[in-house]
Amino acid sequence: MNATALRGDRPDTDQASVPPAVVELHGVGKRYGAIEALSDVDLRVNAGDVVAILGPNGAGKTTAISIMLGLRPPSSGHVRILGGEAGSHAVRSRVGAMLQESGVPATLKVNEVVDLFRSYYPVALPRDMVLAAAGLADASSKRVGSLSAGQKQRLYFGIAISGDPDLLFLDEPTTGMDVESRHRFWEQIRSFATSGKTILFSTHILEEADALANRIVVIDRGRIVASGTPAQLKGRSMGTQIRLRGPFTAEEVAAWPGVRQVTATGAVLVLGVDDATNVMRRIFADGRTVDEVSIEEAGLESAFLGMTRVTETDR
Amino acid sequence: MTPIAIPRAATAGVRPSGWLGGMLLHQTRTELLKLMRAPDFVAGAVLLPVVLFVLFGARSLDETLDNGVALGPLIVAAFTTYGLLGIVLFTFGESLALERGQGWLRLTRATPLPGAIFLAGKLAAGVVISTMVIILMAAVSTGFGAGIDAATWLRVSGVGLAGALALAPIGFLIGLLVRPTAATAVCLLLYLPLSFASGMWIPANELPQVVQSIAPFLPTYHFAELAQSVLLKSSPWEHVAWLAGTFAITGGMAMIAYRRMVGRQFA
Q1: Best mutation target, A120, A159, A161, A168, to test chain B (most B CBs within 10 A)
Q2: What are the φ and ψ backbone dihedral angles of A45, each rounded to 5 degrees?
Q3: Which of A151, A295, B20, B196 is the most buried (most CB within 10 A)?
């Protein structure tokens, strides 16, 4: 996987009518002492985009979002949010945020918390609309302390949209949710996105990025290693793979046209190919006995693994 | 949900500022609701001073000092300052530290709420709860026949509130610097020895000799003495100077601690 070839590969910036940039990061880095949490991050998010920052734990996702919110200053580089300074009052008035490990006093009621956050914003959504969007209309007079983990996450989502933000940041929004509430939550985010809002969320769940985002930025060890639409990233992966067991050597197979990459695992050769049909034809035209052959479409999963070099168990 | 068009995206400052007064009202109301619904806060910071007054102070109300000054009002004033010190430590110190730990503070910093309004809301809530403690103390001590007239109570209250505000930055410093899990213990470990050594439970001149020699260097001692000076009609200025100095120094330290935590301009 050639990560550098993917960097800066953003077809949307090449179009004639470029939508206004909502988020612009240029060469942003962040050091905590000797640890380099982010290095040389370039990112442009256009109005109306739904962007996923995808990466394993500790990749720098939360640091990136903190910098975009103005909660932490970057060590280097430039940040522009909605054309202004990250964290400035004017920008904060148009931004909503759902952070990890944020807690609301347990003795407050849901509607009190929503009203409190609505009071912070010059333009606030009606309380009922916030509660409906968060799926908490029935729980509005419950105390925060009595909410389930999923309901709390939805309350934080409600808080985040209460100021009718043009730009919404969600840091690992579905952490701690079961599969069912996660899917319901995705629906809520989708319905918010249809109102033309720009959304930037972080996740380590591939399915989540694939389901919600129209653009995925893959981040690993503080660096952007790939960026594109879900379809582009899938295409940039190993592509189609052919597993082959037979009297072939990796060297001769690698020389065949259409074979991009060969890895030998014991007696099995795994071929990364552009066009499976031609390579299959070549295999059978060879005449030698093939012990085993199978074709596998690479998904986003293998693309992600290839880019971030993490194993299943790490995530 | 109806779609909402983005107003001229990528241009900053298109929205007016929110109404600060409304924010402050909401913030104060939320602080009060949050605190008054917490049983441990109500018991420890609001009711305990009155209970201790009933147990330890009420029985000496009829006595007079050698110089003929009635002891009753002095005892009531001392226990009132004890109650106010608790509010300084627990509403500003403990609750702020806990909110830091919860991530509540971080979350509000991502909103347009100015940090000053957040802190002002806590102060305002502290003043409201302090007033409740004063009214409660006035009612209970009058019931025990402390013999303080309304005008004197007003003066003691005013001086007490001003003194508590001067100590408020100490509470904020604890809230900003102490580890959230340790905040309750730190507040208690300050509250009990300080109130004892400052003569809030028993008169300062009846304290052990060692404590008496330390007391004049405690801001809380001058807080207690200031409230009693109203009744003794003695000069308050030494105590005022001590409290003003404490306010200036700890206020500056709290400001620095806040800026360090926020990592950016105070705004």
Answers
A1: A120
A2: -120, 130
A3: A151
Q: Which residue of B has its CA nearest to A23?
A: B10
Cα(A73)–Cα(A93) distance, integer angstroms: 19
For residue B4, being part of any structural domain is answered with no
**How many domains is chain B partitioned into structurally?**
1
Q: Which residues lie below 8 Å from residue A23, measured CB to CB, with a gap of 6+?
A: A43, A44, A45, A68, A80, A81, A167, A198, A200
- Report field, pTM of the whole predicted structure over 0.95: no
Q: What is the value of ipTM here, to two decimals?
A: 0.86
Residues of chain A with pLDDT under 50: 1-16, 310-315
* CA atoms of A296 and A158, how far apart (whole Å): 42
In a domain, B2, yes or no: no
What burial letters (b/e) apply to A289-306, b meaning 16+ CB within 10 Å?
eeeebeeeebebebbbbb
Q: Is A51 on the interface with B (CB under 8 A)?
A: no
Query: Is the Cβ pair B104, A87 closer than 8 Å?
Result: no
Residue by residue, what is the 3-state secondary structure of A94-150? CEEEECCCCCCCCCCEHHHHHHHHHHHCCCCCCHHHHHHHCCCHHHCCCEHHHCCHH
* CB of B148 closer than 8 Å to CB of B142: yes
For the stretch A112-156, pLDDT in tens is: 999 999 999 988 999 999 999 888 999 999 999 999 988 999 999
With respect to residue B14, please indicate whether it lies within any of the assigned structural domains.
Answer: no
- Is A141 an 8 Å CB contact of chain B? no
- For residues A144, A145, A148, A152, the Cα torsion angle rounded to the nearest 10 degrees is 40
- The nearest CA of chain B is from the CA of A81 a distance in Å of 8
Residues 8-37 of B with CB under 8 A from A: 9-18, 22-23, 26-27, 30, 33-34, 37
Classify the C-alpha dihedral A95-A97-A103-A107 as positive or negative. positive
Closest Cβ opposite residue B111 in set A85, A120, A192 = A120
The C-alpha angle with vertex A120 and arms to A127 and B93, in degrees rounded to 5, equals 115
- What's the DSSP call for residue B94? I
- The β-bridge partners of A242 are A271, A295
Residues of B in contact with A165 (CB under 8 A): none
Nearest alpha-carbon partner for B156 in B226, B219, B247? B226
Q: How far from A139 is each of A59, A112, A114, A268, A278, CA to CA, in Å?
A: 36, 12, 12, 57, 59
Tell whether B10 is covered by a domain. no
Q: Please enumerate in sequence order all residues whose Cβ is within 8 A of that of B112, keeping only pairs 6 or more positions apart, or say none.
A: A89, A92, A93, A120, A121, A122, A163, B17, B18
What is the distance between the alpha carbons of residues A283 and A234, in angstroms, rounded to a whole number? 25
Is pLDDT above 50 for B217?
Answer: yes
Cβ–Cβ under 8 Å, residues A141 and A109: yes
A124 in the Ramachandran plot: left (φ > 0), alpha (ψ -120 to 50) or beta? beta
CA distance B49 to B201: 10
Q: Which domain holds residue B134?
A: 21-266
Q: What gap in Å lies between CA A116 and CA B99, rounded to an integer? A: 15
User: CA-based angle A170:A173:A177, to the nearest 5?
Assistant: 175
Residue type, B247: F
